[in-house]
Amino acid sequence: MTQPLITIDSVTRQFAKTPDLAAKLANRLGAHFEPQVVHAVDSVSLKIGEGEVVGLVGESGCGKSTLGRIVAGIDNPTSGRILYRGEDVARANGQRARHIALKVQMIFQDTLDSLNPRFRMGQTVREAARFHKVVPDSELDAHIDNVLVQAGLDPRTKSRFAHQFSGGQRQRIGIARALAVNPELVVCDEAVASLDVSIQAQIINLFMDLRERLGLAYLFVSHDIGVVRHISDRVAVMYLGRIVEQGPTEALFADPNHPYTQALLREVPRLDNRHASFNPVSGEIPSPLSPPSGCHFHPRCPFAMDRCRFEPPALKEIAPGRKSACHLNDEPGGSM
Ligand code: SF4
Q: Nearest C-alpha to atom 5 of ligand 1 is from which residue?
């Protein structure tokens, strides 16, 4: 990869958990409960190249959506950096910061919640482009009509409100709104998860078509491994805030290295054989409030050794373009 479009550099995100009623009451009575910390993202590094599709997978609560929001500039890291073409986005200001912010857009799962119910569709799509003067005012109407067509929408429906569209059409409105500001990367957070299977396929085809025509890159955050396999060039697997494995899609699916990836991929159906989701990994997902020491996966890992309980495994190169974080790779004979 030449200069990456986006570099996620050792990004960590922690949240203070809001105390529950019992803790608030106890504090009023003099007990001093320390606020609990959610370890959502833990020192994650990942690169996304120009026009590349990177799939980010993991079970619910693993931190993948938080990471997506940080990449899109909707949330800030507690530590670490996001670089756009090598430039630290946190250090950019004024016009430059606005330019970078427009280059990364996000598409959400909930198509109704992500659209203003009081705005007509045309206004929803044009608002950011108008505000940021993406094109001269005299060209704005033509520009918006063009992105609507690119997203598969009829410009004659611009006066309708969000609730007058189907779920698939609302997702197309979200896509058109993103396209209107000429992004280079689109973060898709479970962007097809709430759609019917046939509509999912249409929206995925639209993503791929836009990639082809506009050179768009995607960070595709999903729990649906079948979809991720279908569209991604590379895949990163997250577990409790850490990336445990990453590599080119076909190599990773053909020969998963990390025991967690192996458990996830076992018997996962393809996109054309639906109900694609995670193969249940045995054992409870530990709480991100108190992740297990050492390798976070050790309480569920059939290969856990003493070392795994106290020493976090580093994400190391295991083959060209492939990385995995498992102590088994240091053992004679490698991983299982
Ligand atoms: Fe299992 Fe240890 Fe590898 Fe973690 S480091 S995945 S516990 S073998």
A: 326
β-partners of residue 7 are: 47, 83
pLDDT in tens, 211-232: 999 999 999 999 889 899 999 9
Instruction: Please give the distance, rounded to the nearest whole angstrom, from the Cα atom of residue 258 to the centre of ligand 1.
Output: 8
The pTM score is 0.90
137: left (phi over 0), alpha (psi -120 to 50) or beta: alpha
Name the percent of the chain in helix, strand, coil, to the closest 5: 35, 20, 40
User: Ligand 1 centroid vs 55 CA: distance in angstroms?
Assistant: 23
The Cα 297–Cα 224 span in angstroms is 20
Dump strand ranges (E) for the chain: 6-16, 37-48, 53-57, 79-84, 87-88, 104-107, 185-189, 217-222, 234-239, 242-248, 316-319, 322-324
